[in-house]
# Entry
Amino acid sequence: MRDVSIIGIGQTHVNEHWNASLRHLALEAISSAIDEAGVDHIEALFVGNMLAGELSGQHNLGALIADYVGMRGIEALTVEAAAGSGGAAVRQAYLAVAGGMMDYALVIGVEKMSDVVGPAAITAQTTSTDSDYEAAHGLTPVSIAAMMMRRYMHEYDASLADFAAFSINAHQNARTNPHAMFHNKLTVEAFVKAPMVSDPVNLFDAAATADGAAAIVLAPTELVRQPGNGTVRIAGSAAATDAMAIADRSDPLWLTAAELSAKRAYQHADMMAKDIHLAELHDETAILAALSLEACGFTERGTAVNFAKSGGMTRDGEIPIGTLGGLKGRGHPGGATGVYQIVEATQQLRGQAGPNQIANAQVALTQSLGANGAVAITHILVHE
Amino acid sequence: MRDVSIIGIGQTHVNEHWNASLRHLALEAISSAIDEAGVDHIEALFVGNMLAGELSGQHNLGALIADYVGMRGIEALTVEAAAGSGGAAVRQAYLAVAGGMMDYALVIGVEKMSDVVGPAAITAQTTSTDSDYEAAHGLTPVSIAAMMMRRYMHEYDASLADFAAFSINAHQNARTNPHAMFHNKLTVEAFVKAPMVSDPVNLFDAAATADGAAAIVLAPTELVRQPGNGTVRIAGSAAATDAMAIADRSDPLWLTAAELSAKRAYQHADMMAKDIHLAELHDETAILAALSLEACGFTERGTAVNFAKSGGMTRDGEIPIGTLGGLKGRGHPGGATGVYQIVEATQQLRGQAGPNQIANAQVALTQSLGANGAVAITHILVHE
# Structure
């Protein structure tokens, strides 16, 4: 197995991009990543996307994007794992490069969600629940998260206001990230008064769907390391699954796939949770952020909400999360999100996070979840 | 790079399976493949699927199927490349095993297309055209193939009847394949009188969409080779793309992606077209079969239709294709088709093709196409 480094990153603003289609967004992010990487020979394109078929009537994004960005002929495909699609695409590219099957691989996470609203949008998003046993009975991704949150509140005696810290932290970090969707400050008072999406998940809790694209270029570390210049290396990479339907899981308050993939990534990197300096977690809802903190071993079971409330995950906290806004603040462009996490962790490790810079950040964890934790892909990045 | 062998295969009948959903079909094919492989430790599940989101309201098939077949926790994801999804999934699993990143990988191609009919089905299938520049103007996959066929007829002075040989051969081979959808004999007279789907592509030319699942288990050859027992080894594997929109291609009568991926696979296997004993091509329409024969180097440009007419691709011809029915005779369950091709080629190389057995078949080529050739994945299998 070869060491693999991230040699180029690119991202569009996350927003409602009414004037750009999938291929335009992809081109913008890929151009930046390729320019940065300074390579002219990409061997394969891995696309992370979850809903282009439903929302843009477009499949086969691999061929579409490869052609549009000037790489016609290249090997290209789409990787899908619900909202974990971006992380899964990075993982596939990593496997190919680490195994020596190719040298230069490009990953693009891209999603265009603004074009479809109303029932059609909900129907599309509900494809990442168990269609026969959840969606058919009226459940949606957010209403499932709401049940998990309700149960957490019951088990650990937490209030709605206790969860505010996750959104407040996300918005605080997003304010100074030019690529983020939201730049407004959030308070506990505003949070608890927000209209409900699916009680108790409210408008300032559920991450906004959005349009966006993020890209990275991977290469063997041995080919790109230059004397005196550090690189960002993928030290750990792992994926795992759990039951799709929440009712089928052994414990609705434990993200087994998140735990398994984190443990495998720690083992791969020969590290433990305490070695991580910052984490980009899948904070699609506060409850998912809380359960991810626990599953990754950053806090004990049942303590993540109090941990967040006491500032443990702010930029100068014990384990900063969502350092450039996370899903809530940067926005959540579906299958692009997992690649945004890697791009942002790379910014941090390179010292390029501007006002959001975490001091002495040398090791970052990213975790991409799909279907409220039915799939999890964890990466550990190190700067060295 | 390690040698990789196929150590287990499984398939359902291809048909309209009204009583089975995606997970049931997947279970049936996977059970057979795992039983045959005789392994109890699968490391990752690669799902080939193109339309489950649109047709079954279900994404994240990796987690869904892994759980349903008793592999909860395993790494799992979906690979999509339009109708080439099955071939692309095999390719991803191959990359992971050949690169030494895992030992035992499972691939399932699964598609459920019968549940949705009429305009919704056409809309779904049209996601594998260029949405902005083809579908938006009324083109569908079949009508694009019709334009290619019309041009071929013009350029090479071919008649509708000249194309009958492809369907007749497919139906002849399907008659004795118990897993095939169609078992009826076809004649030139019936072919030329068939109602048009998109003139000149008729009902007996356009491959029927269907439900089905096919599975294979991959492992490093060095771990599974036993003295005296041959294995089916993947000697060549490659993928390539072309422009999505037919109008953007440099030549509408040349499948550049098919040619590129075939050339790369030949190079990988250190072989040439003349070394291949049988080919499972993507004969979704006769024109695609003809252009694939030419792109893979089995016949000269402009000669494939005459080659077929003279029996060159029958079971005792120069290069037998669709030996168990191909897409036309076995049926075309979207993202499962590419895995069926590998399963059938493996049956041939093992000498397990029954009445369809090609004598002395030691080397087989499979080619999975998506979007009328915008993406192509080619594998070369050898028995040794």
Summary: The first strand of chain A starts at residue 4 and ends at 11.
